[in-house]
Amino acid sequence: MSTDSYSTLTKRNVILFGEALADIFPDGPVMGGAPLNVSCHLQAFGLHPMLITRTGTDELHRKLIRLMRNAGMTISGIQSDPHYPTGQVLIKPGENGYGHQFEILENQAYDFIDPVTAATAASSIEPDLVYFGTLAQRNRLSGSALETIFRYTPQTPRLLDINLRKPWYTRDTVRYSLTRADHVKVNEDELIELPGLLNLHTRDPRDTASRLIEEFQLHTLLVTCGAEGAWLLDQSGNEAETPGITDITIIDTVGAGDGFSAVFILGMLLGWPETLTLERANRFAAALCGIRGAIPESSEFYSPFLKDWGMIN
Predict the structure, then answer these.
(1) In sequence order, what are the beta bridge partners of 114?
(2) What is the pLDDT at residue 114?
(3) Which of 53, 113, 193, 281 could form a disulfide with 145 if both were Cys (CB 3.0 to 4.6 A apart)?
């Protein structure tokens, strides 16, 4: 496939709603947040992501805008808040890249996403998918902004990326999110937690997945298992899975799940078989563990994957 045909094929619009923030490591900040990370990957894959979020008017805001402009991304969904700072998460790295401790600060700009401004951005494109999570819904105003986006995109498929970071979620938020989703991504620990949170009486992870699909009328439930791979169950009862990858060097696991989400979105929009999508997403996520931070510094990082996927020569 030529580069031109690849660009034509993959020029799809995706709205990504939620937090853009800085992961504050001991040696300095790294821009992150699941919606931002996924947006950057989708841009590198050739899609047209629109990130709808809110930042402060500080240096981290300027750092974000530089990052997005350098990547060729639209900034029309970025709001600026004169009172609250760009979001921050304090990170204490774990040993060998695993087990990071996170302190998610409260009253950050992404908690105050304006619904009217968000609606204006969302109505400016015709999205093929809406991606959202749970963290940015911890404040009612941002939750209202998300609901407004849903009203402007009633027929658009939605992917919920659950992120259960205590204490920043409630049963009501998770249940509401599930009722608005078509596809859901969770990690294995979150899948274990959901039955207790939602009063589901299930026997094992597969049973939990089946119950979630049935109760919330989901098309797909994707479960990532870190080094053990990932598996998927759909509404017809079909399963797909991919094993873990062992031949990698771990530097930093932050953002690996977001990389998985990005390739999963790409596979859905391009109609890849589910098993192939999981395999490719898992390999990409594993490669991200070999770099510092969630977003590669160079677009060359993506080239081997795009070539392997037959998307560029």
Answers:
(1) none
(2) 98
(3) 113
| CA pair distance 117, 105, nearest whole angstrom | 24
What's the pLDDT tens digit per position in 145-177? Answer: 999 999 999 999 999 999 998 899 999 999 999
- Confidence (pLDDT) at 225: 95
Contact call for residues 52 and 16 (beta carbons, < 8 A) = yes
Instruction: Give the span between the Cα atoms of 118 and 17, in whole angstroms.
Output: 9
Closest listed residue to residue 174, CA positions, set 145, 220, 143 = 143
User: For residue 51, which phi and psi values (nearest 5 degrees)?
Assistant: -85, 125
Q: How large is the average pLDDT for residues 93-100?
A: 63
Mean pLDDT score, 262-283: 97
Residue that the structure tokens 């619009």 belong to: 13
CB 117 within 8 A of CB 93: no
Both tokens assigned to 306: 């795009």
The per-residue pLDDT for range 194-204, each reduced to its tens digit, is 999 999 999 99
Minimal CA–CA distance to 88: which of 103, 66, 98?
103
pLDDT digits (tens, 9 = 90+) for 211-259: 999 999 999 999 999 989 999 999 999 999 999 988 888 888 889 999 9
Whether residue 91 contacts residue 102, with contact meaning beta carbons closer than 8 Å, is answered with yes
Q: What span, in angstroms and rounded, lies between the C-alpha atoms of 214 and 193?
A: 18
The strand pair at 28-32 and 239-242 is best described as unpaired
Distances (CA, A) of 207 to 192, 212, 220: 11, 9, 14
Task: Could you list the beta-strand ranges (E) of the chain.
Answer: 13-17, 21-25, 28-32, 48-55, 78-80, 87-92, 101-104, 129-133, 158-161, 183-187, 220-224, 230-234, 239-242
**How many C-beta atoms surround the C-beta of residue 226 within 10 A?**
17
